[in-house]
Amino acid sequence: MRKINIFDTTLRDGEQSAGVNLNLHEKLEIARQLERLNVDIIEAGFPAASKGDFESVKQVANIIKNASVVGLARSKQSDIDAVWEAVKGGVSPRLHTFIATSPVHMKYKLKQTPEEVIETAVSSVKYAAKLFPTIQWSAEDACRSDYDFLVKIITKVIDAGASVINLPDTVGYINPKEYGQMFAYIQEHVPNIHKAVLSAHCHDDLGMAVSNSLAAIENGVTQIEGTINGIGERAGNASLEEVAVALHIRQDYYQANTRLKLDEIKRTSDLVSKLTGMVIPPNKAIVGKNAFAHESGIHQDGVLKEKTTYEIISPDLVGVKSNSMVLGKHSGRHAFRTHLVELGYQLEEDDVNRLFVLFKELADKKKEITEEDISALLVEQQLTNDEDYFVLTALQVQYGTNQVPTATITLTNADGETIQEAATGAGSVEALYNTLERCIAAPIVLEDYRIQSVGAGRDALAQVYVKVELDGIVSSGRGTAQDVLEASAKAYINAVNRVYNIKNSNQEKISIS
Ligand SMILES: CC(=O)SCCNC(=O)CCNC(=O)[C@H](O)C(C)(C)COP(=O)(O)OP(=O)(O)OC[C@H]1O[C@@H](n2cnc3c(N)ncnc32)[C@H](O)[C@@H]1OP(=O)(O)O
Ligand SMILES: CC(C)C(=O)C(=O)O
């Protein structure tokens, strides 16, 4: 059985999904869960991109003990230095550096000749080799590159010190047969390729990212890069849970496996979905709500007689629980704490106590509290170290079938001042958002609004995700409440607060001495 290393880039390429921006606490929470899932490598960010990115890579490197933490860098000394400063405190620091190798990227983007690109790549790997024990080098847009040019540059970067060679399908263009052939060609023609681990990194523009990753494995690749739930730039990356479960279920065919604890998959997927606001489609393989639901009579009959008639994956395998314990207003601190641990959260006693108070408040309003409610509560209350520039103090919305909806809102700003405004709209949510825009006194464009219920039942919590644009910065926000309008207001304010936090963290680009 060949061992396949899993390189998780949820925190880097995953965060490149339009509208997703995770704060430091959220990144640390995801990193801890990735460690529980047992991924081999965590790409925690691009340290040269901003002070915030630098800090989060650094903190992830400091807390993760069972995976190698890597940062991304262009072929530039300042980017490489930023990665080193961020990851050097980690147990197994790594660099991931890249340069584009396709004719279109070299000519129009980099404005370099192929020979100059080789020179840039080799000199940056040589420079990095003085700092890093492990260097991964990627040929950006490898799949649209000339294969003989790839042979030439790969041979030279391995000689310069790279020990992992990644050939990404940056634009999601290739198909499985071609991707396999490309890796076969490289192994046949690069004389020193035995000194390097081969890695695949696929995008899903044509819906082939997972198939391409599996084809790469069939052709000698031993490292797969991807993200949880397949999030990422444009149509996303290869979904790691799909790759890992495909290898497990079809070991007979692939003769390869990962180290992942597959029963941590569902929890990881839920956490990433909640924190990024990227909702999982119900029919998504492995982690979708319907992935284990048998709907039609003939299927149900078959499953009742023998599960394997229609079930190739057991829900338990990936951590999907059929029976979740229900908490209510009579539950005590022990049951609550046990529940948090089962959900994978290790919190300080003070945080447990603080959340317990909120849990009791919710339990007074809601008959049964499910795991989903607790996760929503946690995500809402726990994972924010952002500064609150605006806090919702009071909210009133008037709505009647023959009346213009009107909202009145009171906010408190960072200086402790009270702001009160009222405005109308075509509907209640529009009235609410027109009023909030007045309170914040800045032009805010609402780019996306999504609402879903947390769990089932009439008293289910409402969870709202919004995407707003303010001063050229796009940010997502979320809010949870029993009332949909309160959840809508909270999500909007959360997104605006995040814009101000991003503006602050971007003001100063890091400079490493
Ligand atoms: C395929 C991928 O996913 S690559 C990773 C994508 N991730 C990101 O871009 C992270 C977020 N990015 C950022 O914050 C910014 O783009 C920064 C800080 C990295 C750079 O910002 P800026 O200095 O303002 O440059 P900008 O982004 O406008 O342009 C990129 C520059 O890097 C150059 N560049 C691109 N890739 C590379 C590379 N691998 N090596 C060296 N230079 C590169 C471009 O040619 C361009 O150079 P130019 O200014 O001389 O034309
Ligand atoms: C930096 C590289 C690996 C990348 O993200 C891509 O090419 O898609």
Automatic annotation (TrEMBL):
<dbReference type="InterPro" id="IPR005671">
    <property type="entry name" value="LeuA_bact_synth"/>
</dbReference>
<feature type="region of interest" description="Regulatory domain">
    <location>
        <begin position="391"/>
        <end position="513"/>
    </location>
</feature>
<comment type="subunit">
    <text>Homodimer.</text>
</comment>
<feature type="domain" description="Pyruvate carboxyltransferase">
    <location>
        <begin position="4"/>
        <end position="266"/>
    </location>
</feature>
<feature type="binding site">
    <location>
        <position position="201"/>
    </location>
    <ligand>
        <name>Mn(2+)</name>
    </ligand>
</feature>
<dbReference type="Pfam" id="PF00682">
    <property type="entry name" value="HMGL-like"/>
</dbReference>
<keyword id="KW-0100">Branched-chain amino acid biosynthesis</keyword>
<dbReference type="InterPro" id="IPR013709">
    <property type="entry name" value="2-isopropylmalate_synth_dimer"/>
</dbReference>
<dbReference type="InterPro" id="IPR036230">
    <property type="entry name" value="LeuA_allosteric_dom_sf"/>
</dbReference>
<dbReference type="GO" id="GO:0003852">
    <property type="term" value="F:2-isopropylmalate synthase activity"/>
</dbReference>
<dbReference type="GO" id="GO:0003985">
    <property type="term" value="F:acetyl-CoA C-acetyltransferase activity"/>
</dbReference>
<keyword id="KW-0432">Leucine biosynthesis</keyword>
<keyword id="KW-0963">Cytoplasm</keyword>
<dbReference type="InterPro" id="IPR054691">
    <property type="entry name" value="LeuA/HCS_post-cat"/>
</dbReference>
<feature type="binding site">
    <location>
        <position position="237"/>
    </location>
    <ligand>
        <name>Mn(2+)</name>
    </ligand>
</feature>
<feature type="binding site">
    <location>
        <position position="203"/>
    </location>
    <ligand>
        <name>Mn(2+)</name>
    </ligand>
</feature>
<dbReference type="Pfam" id="PF22617">
    <property type="entry name" value="HCS_D2"/>
</dbReference>
<keyword id="KW-0464">Manganese</keyword>
<comment type="similarity">
    <text>Belongs to the alpha-IPM synthase/homocitrate synthase family. LeuA type 1 subfamily.</text>
</comment>
<protein>
    <recommendedName>
        <fullName>2-isopropylmalate synthase</fullName>
        <ecNumber>2.3.3.13</ecNumber>
    </recommendedName>
</protein>
<dbReference type="GO" id="GO:0009098">
    <property type="term" value="P:L-leucine biosynthetic process"/>
</dbReference>
<keyword id="KW-0028">Amino-acid biosynthesis</keyword>
<comment type="pathway">
    <text>Amino-acid biosynthesis; L-leucine biosynthesis; L-leucine from 3-methyl-2-oxobutanoate: step 1/4.</text>
</comment>
<keyword id="KW-0808">Transferase</keyword>
<keyword id="KW-0479">Metal-binding</keyword>
<comment type="function">
    <text>Catalyzes the condensation of the acetyl group of acetyl-CoA with 3-methyl-2-oxobutanoate (2-ketoisovalerate) to form 3-carboxy-3-hydroxy-4-methylpentanoate (2-isopropylmalate).</text>
</comment>
<dbReference type="GO" id="GO:0005737">
    <property type="term" value="C:cytoplasm"/>
</dbReference>
<dbReference type="Pfam" id="PF08502">
    <property type="entry name" value="LeuA_dimer"/>
</dbReference>
<dbReference type="InterPro" id="IPR050073">
    <property type="entry name" value="2-IPM_HCS-like"/>
</dbReference>
<dbReference type="GO" id="GO:0030145">
    <property type="term" value="F:manganese ion binding"/>
</dbReference>
<dbReference type="InterPro" id="IPR002034">
    <property type="entry name" value="AIPM/Hcit_synth_CS"/>
</dbReference>
<feature type="binding site">
    <location>
        <position position="13"/>
    </location>
    <ligand>
        <name>Mn(2+)</name>
    </ligand>
</feature>
<dbReference type="InterPro" id="IPR000891">
    <property type="entry name" value="PYR_CT"/>
</dbReference>
<dbReference type="InterPro" id="IPR013785">
    <property type="entry name" value="Aldolase_TIM"/>
</dbReference>
